[in-house]
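Entry 14. Two folds queued back to back today. First construct below, sequence then structure tokens.
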Amino acid sequence: MLNSSGDEITDGSLKKSLAIVAIPIVAQHLALSTQLIIDVFWLGRLSSTAVAAVGLIQPVVGLLAVSINATASGVQILVSQRLGADDPTGARRITIHGMALAVSLMATIALFMHVYALDITQLFNASSTVTQLGATYLSTLTLAYIVTAASDTLEAGFVGAGDSRTPLIANLTAIGVNAILDPFLILGWGPFPKYGIAGAPYATLAGYVVGGSIIFTAALSTHGDFSLTRTALQFRPRELAKLLRVGGPQAGQRVGRQTARLCIVAIISMTGSTAALTAYTVGARIATIVFVPAIGIGQGATTLVGQNLGADQPQRATRATWLGVTVGTLGLGSLGVIQWLFPTTLAHMFVPGISGQTLTYSVAYLQILAYGYWALGAIYTVSAGFNGAGRTEISMYAVLLQYWAIRVPVAAIMAFVLGYGAFGPFWAVTISNIVAGVGLTVAFYYSTTTGMLTRAADTASNPAD
């Protein structure tokens, strides 16, 4: 059974517990990445301009999810710590508070994005056709994100409890619905009208509604691994304060990352036109699949670290982090070798008929990305040690330095000063990943030798009422 009890996480084999928690998360993220690929696959049959439009607004879509991801991360961390300290009521209560916060924030953000979608896409200096299509996609997708705000936060509670199987089932169902509906709604198959680029987010919305229904049903069941009770509905301002303290830096981290990506997209659009933007979209989609294992291992390790700190076992939490780093670095490094060897095949898989300058850019970007995959494995997994300890601000500072002190300046200098054009931003991505991977690893080693996890265990194992 793919869920791990608290006793297994704090007393059993770390390798087994990490595998049990991480495997469903990896499968879930692979499925989510597949959903994005399926969208691009069918939009590619619509037109290459539609693919470029999705790439244009992808960083904006990332900003849409900031409130959801940050709140979900805070919920997972606090739930794992509280269950490790044998406080199930507190774990359920923080989940309810997280859901309320995520939905409120997302509804506000979605309303703003829905009204100003075209104004936002016009900031990227792309062609009028690309900006119009991007605005259509963006304004439609905002509806789906209100639904997923609640379901994703609740899923984080399950993962923090060591049950990553239930969220996997819900997401696989949601993605299956999305995948089935995509060609019908995008291309107008059968009795369905042809919605074009808007069909992809319509299919996503339908999938999220179905998947959300499953996760809510599981949470309300008294037989569930992470069932919610009536006592969890008690509102406590202090819970929101704790959630904001842990999740706030995660929001800052994601805002910093996504706004920097907006700059990268703008630089690529100005220096390489639609061909380079399409290549960037292809590379980003493939990279999303590649670093999914690191995300899953990192989230699994966060649960292990949090529960062991709650159980006052800092040394075991340290070992869990280094185990994740080892697996993530070696795994992504191996995938990087495969991508470097077969970039043309991968490009054709995503955009059939790709050729000319677009293919040249795509092959180059895929090979450049491959050089830094091992570092991505380190970034996502070593962050689990900091995040599981509640020190999410460290990950935030690392991301801000990675993107704003390295990636954006290097991209601008190489593109405009040194004359590398769109290849400048391509190289800037890999350079920033390598610097961040090495820096975070050194920082975690230093922090553990100076007692960071011991202090975190003292706090987590004695939760305030």
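Second construct, same run, same settings:
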Amino acid sequence: MLILRLFIVLVILLLVLSGGMYMFTRNRRYLEFAWQTVRFTVLSLLVFALLFVLERYVLVGWLAIL
């Protein structure tokens, strides 16, 4: 969980810096980068949640059957 928290903090920092750079330069490249970062973060969190559910329910249920 520590790695997940660090990941979220780094993503928030990256989004804030990207938004600040957009405000400073008015270059849309920074907004596109922020949007790409958000999409990657959501996808990563969905994969993590799927693995958590897999570990929590499927593997524990499998061990109960054995």
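Quick look at the second one. The chain has one domain: 2-65. The longest helix spans residues 28-65.
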